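note to self: dont lose this again. the chain is below, predicted strucutre after it. 67 aa total, dont forget to put it in the shared folder this time
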Amino acid sequence: MIYVTDSLNTDQQQVIEATLRGVDGVIAPRFNKPHLLVALYSAEKTNPAVLLRAVTTAGYQAQLVGL
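---
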């Protein structure tokens, strides 16, 4: 899970979800709470650090939680 510290509107959430869909191995990213992003992914192709880097590279402050 990724906690995004920025306050996001729906468009920004959709941008982050689309960004993660562009990461090889990501199957289904989605926000289940306003700041909490969950992503289903293939552990053979990617890992949480790569997902976090995709979010932060897109310009958002975030951190891994629940690991």
